[in-house]
Amino acid sequence: MKEYTYTLELKTRDYECDIQGVVNNANYQHYLEVTRHEFIQSVGISFEDLHRQGIDVMVSRVTINYRAPLRGGQEFLSCLNIYRKGVRYIFEQDIYRKSDGVQCIKAQVDCVCVVNGSLTRGDEIYPTFAPYLTTP
Known about the structure:
This protein is α+β, with helices and mostly antiparallel strands.
């Protein structure tokens, strides 16, 4: 496993699985979002506070490569790195089964910053993210 800026340990739930006994593809987006939100809170950003200031950080694109399944009750590591490219903050997010270290998904989540309804370069949140930015 490579180095990551942030790692969160989570566990699947049986109701997230489809008839084949594997986690339904849509649930991976929930795992990715939980990880991003936990990371963002850990660095001191509150979406509620930002929104009150007219600043909204929004997902603009999600790309997920599914590599191996998770099943009900399995523990996994949800990891992320973040870098900046133009107006986007890009989260590289990977999920690994904890039991054997197999990579289950590789994802890229692009986010943008909107201030009072207008797209910006995201400079409003840069000072907080700067210490955690990596190179792609």
